[in-house]
Automatic annotation (TrEMBL):
Domain Amidohydrolase-related: 133-372
Pfam families in the cross-refs: Amidohydro_2
Xref: InterPro entries: Amidohydro-rel, Metal_Hydrolase, Metallo-dep_Lactonases
Organism: Gordonia hirsuta DSM 44140 = NBRC 16056
PANTHER family named in the record: AMIDOHYDROLASE, AMIDOHYDROLASE-RELATED DOMAIN-CONTAINING PROTEIN
Family, per entry: Belongs to the metallo-dependent hydrolases superfamily.
UniProt GO MF annotations: hydrolase activity
Protein name per the record: Amidohydrolase-related domain-containing protein
């Protein structure tokens, strides 16, 4: 089995979450998870109406049972790296955390101060202490709430230049039990986003986007509109239900899953023709892809994960090339189905025979270049390619 020994000095994990649901702004509505079986039993018209009153119901599709109710910090992440060394042969030297606010709609907690608390929480982790990974930079939210609530202020007050990108969560799905990340039909066309986006691009910030695969065609138009920007598509373009049923009826039949896969392949090929678009190979064990809903792991191990995710990963790598793919563990949200070691091992199984150049860029070089990860955050970075 392939390892990363001699290929990279370490791994840069470009997608992790740190959160504490006991405190704002992560306090979630606990009714959500318990309401899912009841919601599924409703007729479709009533299902849509009920879903609007239980806004966190579909969060059960993005993480394992009970995970979002537990605190997750850098120390927990470091424990979850156990077993990675034996698989990859190298450690994780730096992480790039993203905001972990899962609430979809505006609330009293949505204020510039709330977003500042989120950023402060990310920055307060003990990076680099006792062998824990260093901080490579942070990604802050850019949605209909955050844009109007001081994203520019966060950037202007970022004296240490640690904000490396902004993240627009514009995923909306016609299935009422698949989570909507926004209530805005076209997030990129909102007055707030259109007003602030050019300024963010001029600042050299990466524009990360979270959308479902059927929305990727819209991103093609945005990438053409801003050719000077760097866009990163999260989670392989998120083809919800591609492996099995999720939500109410998404991916419920083989024919439906084939349609999801075919549309995803077509849209990713279109995006690959835009040189300013990269793909984050993250969330490859996410429940939302349709692996199953058992309380214990739903995949069965590294080799099964490699067999399932392999065609998607290879399609992305073949179209985007080695310099436009970035690894992210999505910890801890995928931990229910696969550990970080299993996730990395599955990718090595899929891509090991593609050569060291691809592996070096996927796991290290591209994240260091795109997110401007400081040399001090990575070992032997001075010898790495820029």
């Amino acid at each position: 089995m392939a390892t990363l020994v001699g290929t990279v000095p370490s791994i840069i994990d470009a997608r992790v979450h740190f959160f504490d649901p006991r405190t704002p702004p992560w306090s979630l509505q606990r009714i959500g998870r318990a309401s899912v079986p009841v919601l599924r039993a409703l007729p479709r018209p009533l299902l849509w109406i009920a879903s609007q009153f239980t806004q966190e119901h579909s969060l059960s599709g993005i993480a394992g049972p009970g995970l979002l109710a537990r605190r997750y910090q850098l120390a927990d992440y470091t424990k979850d790296l156990a077993g990675l060394q034996s698989v990859a042969g190298v450690p994780v030297s730096a992480v790039i955390p993203v905001d972990s606010q899962w609430r979809r709609r505006q609330s009293a907690e949505d204020s510039p101060e709330a977003f500042q608390r989120d950023l402060d929480h990310l920055l307060a982790q003990p990076y680099g202490v006792d062998g824990m990974p260093r901080l490579g930079g942070v990604i802050v939210p850019l949605d209909e709430r955050a844009v109007g609530l001081g994203v520019r202020r966060l950037l202007d007050e970022d004296d240490d230049d640690l904000i490396r990108g902004v993240r627009l969560r514009w995923a909306r799905h016609p299935d009422p039990l698949v989570h909507d990340w926004t209530s805005t039909p076209d997030a990129f066309a909102t007055a707030h986003v259109e007003r602030v986006l050019p300024d963010l691009i001029r600042r050299g910030l990466v524009i990360e986007t979270l959308c479902y695969s059927h929305q990727l065609g819209e991103l093609v138009e945005v990438a053409d509109r801003y050719p000077e920007a760097t866009f990163v598509v999260e989670h392989l373009g998120l083809p919800a239900g591609v492996f099995g049923p999720v939500g109410n009826s998404t991916g419920a039949t083989a024919a439906a899953r084939a349609d999801i896969l075919n549309l995803w392949r077509e849209r990713m090929a279109m995006l690959a023709a835009r040189p300013n678009v990269l793909v984050k190979i993250s969330a490859i064990a996410s429940p939302i892809l349709g692996y199953g809903n058992e309380k214990s792991g739903n995949i069965g191990g590294q080799h099964i994960l490699a067999d399932m995710i392999g065609p998607l990963v290879l399609h992305v790598v073949d179209r985007f090339g080695p310099r436009r793919v970035i690894f992210g563990s999505n910890a801890p949200l995928d931990g229910h189905n696969a550990s970080i070691g299993v996730t990395v091992g599955a990718l090595l199984d899929v891509l090991g025979d593609r050569g060291e150049y691809l592996l070096a860029h996927l796991f290290y070089e591209n994240a260091r270049r795109v997110y401007r990860v400081d040399d001090a955050a990575t070992p032997d970075a001075g010898s790495a390619e820029t």
